[in-house]
Amino acid sequence: MSEQGTSHLLPVFARVDLAFERGEGAWLTATNGQRYLDFTSGVAVNALGHAHPHLIEAIGEQVQKLTHVSNLYRIPEAERLADRLCEASFADFVFFANSGAEAMEGAIKVARKYQAASGKPEKFRIVTFEGAFHGRTLATLAAGGQKKYLDGFGPPVDGFDQVQSLDLDLVRKAIGPATGAILIEPIMGEGGVRVVAPEFLKGLRQLCDQHGLLLMFDEVQTGMGRSGELFAYQRTGVTPDIMALAKALGGGFPMGAVLATAEAAKGMTAGTHGSTFGGNPLAMAAGNAVLDVMLADGFFDHVKRMSLILKQKLAGIKDRFPGVIAEIRGEGLLIGMRAVVPSGELVDALRAQNLLVVAAGDNVVRLLPPLIVTETEIADAVQRIERACERLAKTHPQAAAQGAAG
Question: Do residues 361 and 232 both lie within one domain?
């Protein structure tokens, strides 16, 4: 059925005419029988790949017992997952939601409520950064500040002051009497896989401490192992006060979370926030299963090793095809190829090689393989990327000429 023709799905996605019926590990099988190497992972969601046996077992067992009871009652599975996330991070408290946007909305509320509980309700504004992406709700769209997403939805939600570049002097100028927090992604995924320098993050931490602000990290995409550590902040030497998670947290089951220190969360008392589905037993079974796998010995060593191999091989391709790929960037298994040709053409060329990738800002193509990807699968993907670059070099004379000159 053609979505554009007869589908009743709201046409807000420019979907590719491709559907899948099953997956295993890093591979997807389409309804036409073709196999694809999945380096999109549901946009950084399927961190354990498809049909991971431990995740399937945990969800299967839980669905036969209990799926939903509401937060009117204690949910032991949620308490266990919250304990484990706090033990593995800076946080003292966790709030479970259903998506990244909900997690970010919750984080924004925690930050505002902290200032109100501190006797400074006027300090509700949050400094954000150009190129960021924090979600699709009205508040998170305003936090991201991208005009293409805001157009047509009325006045943007007030309370966000966007800085145009990662410049501490500009941040200082943006801080005013009404500023209550600073929000940033440690690696800007949607914004082009831009890795924020630890020195800049340290500067933000100092500014927050100096001005009584909270430092908020959006780790919806970078969290849960994608950077090579459980959380990307652990690579930087900088600890936030509030952090939002989602995507890989449930390994494919929808869920999000807000993590916060006891001090940052002091205003969040009974009735100040809530969720009907957040923290339900089925989602918690998925989250605990993901943590079981990720916290096992050697898991992050594997991610780091695969990252190094992938980046080294991609650097070689960039050198051979400088008219197609200009730069390799990223951390862990969140890798960006900044393209010279239009990034959409590179995505299409890779899909023609049965390799699934996803575009990002700054004309970048993201590689987001599952964290359990093997060295053999990386070698396979690299061959497909090389073939795609060869074809693009032939169809773009300028690219071919640059390659020859190189």
Answer: no
